[in-house]
Model the fold of this input.
Amino acid sequence: MDRPAVIVKTAAELRVPPHWRDYQRERQQDPWAAARRDLQLDPQGPMNMAVLAVDRHLQQGLADKTALRFVARNAPALDMSYGTLAQQTNRLANVLQALGVAPGDHLFVLAGRLPALYVAVLGALKAGVVVTPLFSAFGPEPIATRMQLGQARLLVTTDILYRQKIRALRAQLPTLQHVLLVNPDGQLTTEPDTLDWTTVMAGASDHFTPAPTTADSPALLHFTSGTTGTPKGALHVHGAAITHYATGRHALDLHPQDRFWCTADPGWVTGTSYGILAPLLHGVTSLVDREEFDAERWYTLLQDERISVWYTAPTAIRLLMKAGPELAQRHQFPDLRFIASVGEPLNPEAVWWGKEVLGLPIHDNWWQTETGGIMVANTPAFDIKPGAMGRPLPGIDAYLVTQLQAPGEAPRVRVLDAPEAQGELALRAGWPSMFRGYLNNEARYQQCFADGLYLTGDLVRRDAEGYYWFVGRLDDVIKSAGHLIGPFEVESVLMEHPAVAEAGVIGKPDALVGETVKAFVSLKNGYLPDEALRSDLQAHARKRLGAAVAPKEIAFLPTLPRTRSGKIMRRLLKARELGLPEGDTSTLEAGA
Ligand code: AMP
Done:
């Protein structure tokens, strides 16, 4: 079907008057000052994300309003009000204090989307403790690496996950002093060297004086994958809440009466910044679905939970498209008024599908772990060009650059001024949610900046009207179902297998999930490249890494291509996989 290049916004489609309509005018305002005013913040005074997201609303008479509504297949829905969330987070903060966990210490959370996860994250923030939510589908290897790097002092997890993934690791986690075990069935947990969540929470006070944090105090540690080496811990500060609030307004158009659903898991940065913080900062009611994706279930939730603003991911949208329009047409979405998505390229087809099947186009937006919040977005303030990731939000100055330095030198860049250009996306450093360091790796952090610009590592195109279009990654990291996967982490686990001599891991383009993880291995002498070994390798990788990270495909090669300095040439493996001429990796980005 022929479709125009632009979806023109109409007032009817927006349903409620949006916060902003004039892109140019809003860009001339200072969104951070406006957010500070709304949040009644003194720039020099104390600042705590959790106090702003939860306790602040109690003074505004919202104690009884539902903050988080948890739904699950086999359990009744549970509504947690702002008042209860304030009490529960105070209790957790008291528990941490009683255990001797101090401001600046690191707490990890490994759990499904249970109420305790949200209480743990927000309670720790109140106590000034730095929080890392980990993806609960990770296998023991990614969990151990991250907890070791992050020097976890305390872990909140469930009894099942503890038994499956942590118990055998404890000896490798010398900094870990306390483990709080949540039993979702309400039974007492009896694991040695752990504490029972329900018991310790029951004995704690509802009152807590928040730690004296400021905008610059560390708050969240999110791990992200690079091409080489271990994952990087991107450190974020309490001041990031200013971006969460401002982008909740500009990119998601949150209004107090909204019922919001962010489908991302808090184990990934979107699930924390927009699944926990931004909606609570706006005092809205958020839905938390404890189940995994299911097309019928999702349409029913959108309808029955009267979701008005929905923030999801391209893979999920493609899965809904695959389920066919008839399923959607059996439901009605009169309350839905704004849909946004993030994490991977959103094909124009998906934007149109939203408009035709759900009655609303999907607003793609762009950001990454290091930026802490949405930077470039399609917003209510301008028409959508399906396929474009939007325009820089107010307060964000975006540039296209090429890096000029020789290998090993500090980055130097040339800014590409032409109205239409393609280059690396760079952002003027200094927005409130910009990461403040990679944990224990200052040199790597400094490599991300040149001439006051943060270099994102993404290749993009800017058109004459200032819309940005994603072209590809400049490095080899893999995006599968919206999750960033470091090839090195997968290669390292494959190399642990006694049969493997070399391993090279790439992202193989996939119409549904963007990319799937594909591994190439060469074997040590004496091992046969047969189906039995392939299954054994796959099982080994799944057990160590978890199904979301392990390779879906493993191919055997006699040797892997290497550079003269000995590095495995993943780009060449990818070119071969795609049937491109050897050495022609220039087009690899285009379909990323
Ligand atoms: P993460 O740090 O895991 O959130 O991943 C961030 C990366 O995901 C970005 O650097 C991009 O490569 C990719 N990404 C995020 N949003 C988009 C988008 N709207 N379109 C294309 N790629 C995206």
Q: What stands out?
A: Residues 586-592 have pLDDT under 50 and may be disordered. The domain at 476-587 is CATH 3.30.300.30 (GMP Synthetase; Chain A, domain 3).
